[in-house]
Each structure stands twice: as structure tokens, then as C-alpha cells.
Specification:
The protein has no helices and six strands. The protein is mostly beta strands. The strands form two sheets. Strands 1-6-3 form a three-stranded antiparallel beta sheet, with no helix packed on it. A three-stranded antiparallel beta sheet has the order 2-5-4, with no helix packed on it. The two termini are 28 Å apart.
């Protein structure tokens, strides 16, 4: 009685890709997320949800620069997990 059986956890994640070459390079960045999640906000909205546990961005990174992507997502845990 009174046990915690489900909860939501909000996480902010920053991904970083650094290009140390002297030319622009194409990138396919696949990021894996665990569990049942829901995107709240992402600064680079040009992503594709591949399946229930992965998303992918495709972009180019200019020579000798860094590309950062920050997103915020809610992760549902315990009985809060949604049935598929």
C-alpha cells in the first residue's frame, strides 16, 4: 500500500558532433532512447522517429565546427508506460 508504481521523468539531453576535418561532412546521427518516451521540445526539429527507441537527424557539419542538438523528453516509467 502506498508504493510508487508509475512515474514520469523529464530529461534534457545535449548531443554534440565535432567535425575536425577541413571540409564539410554529411552526418547521420542515430540516437537511442530507452523505454516509453515523448518528445517535448527539440532545437533541431528536422529528425525522424525510426522506431519506438530511436530517432535520427541528417545534416552537414561545416569544416572545423561543432553541431549541438538539445532535446527535452518525458520518459514514462512503471504503470505509466503506454501500451503499443
Amino acid at each position: 500500500e502506498g508504493n510508487l508504481i508509475g512515474w514520469d521523468e523529464e530529461r534534457t539531453v545535449q548531443l554534440e558532433v565535432k567535425n575536425s576535418r577541413d571540409r564539410k561532412i554529411p552526418i547521420k546521427l542515430t540516437h537511442y532512447l530507452d523505454g516509453d518516451w515523448e518528445m517535448i521540445d527539440v532545437d533541431d526539429k528536422n529528425y525522424e522517429k525510426l522506431d519506438r527507441s530511436s530517432i535520427r537527424w541528417e545534416f552537414e557539419v561545416d569544416a572545423n565546427t561543432t553541431k549541438k542538438i538539445t532535446y527535452r523528453a518525458t520518459f514514462h516509467n512503471g504503470t505509466r508506460v503506454k501500451a503499443n
